[in-house]
């Protein structure tokens, strides 16, 4: 049984499973990231982006190719090796960092945008507060976080939790304002369809 946020189990998924059989690794950027990067909400000039839970790097490499200064972060060492190779194959120099999303190794107010496609909803409940404090700390005032998580109306896998808009509002409202919410059928490499939410939130202050 996989426990939410248990580091060794996530690492083992990349060790034991071929990359093209890991459900969340699409081999291409996810549509919600493409839409945000092409929306014009984030200026390319001087903007810094953090991709939390970057996995094998498809979204991170796309963000870099779109002209943004991006860092990829994950705690699964093999996932980061895939990320580095993908960046090198595309001739990009992207820094990738092995770290815990609830203990980010960055200075305060350094990022204009944080992308999280499936990290938060796998955090153990007792660690969510630390995660929120950390992303709040490293995003500049007025910066954005795009948070994608399972919709609680579906049946999230055992390793994750589902949320609705009221849940996210209650958890993040101390530091963020929700600007946009989209619900959609999540993308899976194995053809499974699950309901997701994507929240776009702006850092207060």
pLDDT < 50 runs, ≥5 residues = 1-7
**Mean of all residue-level pLDDT scores:** 89
- Which architecture per CATH? 3-Layer(aba) Sandwich
Binned, the helix content reads: 25-40%
Strand coverage percent: 25-35%
What does this molecule look like?
The chain has helices spanning 7-16, 31-37, 58-65, 77-89, 128-138, 165-172, and strands at residues 48-52, 69-74, 96-98, 111-117, 139-151, 162-163, 176-186, 194-203. The chain has 205 residues and is an alpha/beta fold. The radius of gyration is 16 Å and the shape is globular.
Structure keywords:
205 residues, alpha/beta, Rossmann fold, eight-stranded mixed sheet, 6 helices, 28% helix, 28% strand, disordered N terminus
Please sum up the structure shown.
The chain has 205 residues and is of the alpha/beta class. The protein has helices at 7-16, 31-37, 58-65, 77-89, 128-138, 165-172; strands spanning 48-52, 69-74, 96-98, 111-117, 139-151, 162-163, 176-186, 194-203.
Question: Secondary-structure map with pairings?
Answer:
Layout lengths: L6 H10 L14 H7 L10 E5 L5 H8 L3 E6 L2 H13 L6 E3 L12 E7 L10 H11 E13 L10 E2 L1 H8 L3 E11 L7 E10 L2
Parallel strand pairs: 1-2, 1-4, 2-3, 4-5, 5-6
Antiparallel strand pairs: 5-8, 7-8
């Amino acid at each position: 049984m996989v426990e939410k946020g248990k580091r060794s189990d996530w690492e083992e998924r990349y060790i034991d499973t071929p990359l093209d059989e890991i459900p969340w690794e699409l081999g291409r950027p996810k549509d919600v990231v493409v839409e945000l990067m092409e929306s014009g909400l984030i200026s390319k000039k001087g903007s810094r982006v953090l991709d939390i839970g970057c996995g094998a790097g498809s979204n991170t490499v796309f963000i870099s190719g779109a002209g943004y200064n991006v860092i990829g972060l994950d705690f699964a060492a093999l996932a980061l090796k895939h990320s580095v190779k993908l960046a090198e194959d595309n001739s990009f120099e992207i820094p990738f960092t092995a770290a815990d999303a609830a203990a980010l190794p960055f200075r305060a107010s350094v990022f204009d945008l944080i992308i999280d496609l499936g990290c938060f909803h796998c955090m153990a409940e007792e660690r969510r507060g630390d995660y929120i404090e950390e992303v709040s700390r490293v995003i500049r005032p007025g910066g954005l976080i795009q948070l994608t998580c399972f919709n609680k109306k579906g049946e999230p896998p055992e390793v994750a939790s589902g949320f609705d808009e009221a849940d996210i509002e209650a958890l993040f409202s101390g530091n963020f304002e929700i600007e946009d919410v989209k619900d959609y059928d999540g993308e899976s490499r194995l053809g499974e369809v699950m309901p997701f939410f994507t929240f776009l939130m702006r850092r207060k202050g």
